[in-house]
Each structure stands twice: as C-alpha cells, then as structure tokens.
Fold this sequence. Notes:
0% strand, 76% helix, mainly alpha
Amino acid sequence: MKNKVTLFLFSLLTFIDTNAQCAMCRAVLENEEGQGVAKGINDGIIYLMAIPYILVFGVGFAIYWKYFRVKK
Length: 72
C-alpha cells in the first residue's frame, strides 16, 4: 500500500511540470519571441486536462463513501 501512495504522489509531482501542446500549437508558438503566450497555452492545457480527472475521482470517492465504507 505504501508503494502505491508513493507512486501516486510522484505521478502528481511530475504531472504538474509537463508541457502538453499539440505539434501544431508548438510549431506556431516556438516562433514567438517572449514565450509568454506559449506558457499561457501550456497552463491552460494542463488546467483543462486536470479537471476531468478531478471530477472522476470525486464521483468515485462519493460512490465509495456511500456504498463501501464500514458502518459503525
């Protein structure tokens, strides 16, 4: 169990610092001078990618909490 928690935390830490551009976006944005727009696009993609995972985790946790927890 400890290995799973460690792997989960490690995957969260590496997920935060990823670049998630498609090839076309990367080609267009690499030609820019300041790279400010490219960083904004990366942050937006990461944000949009994370929301579904958070929602699925929340629904899964709610189902687990309602049906599978041990009642005292």
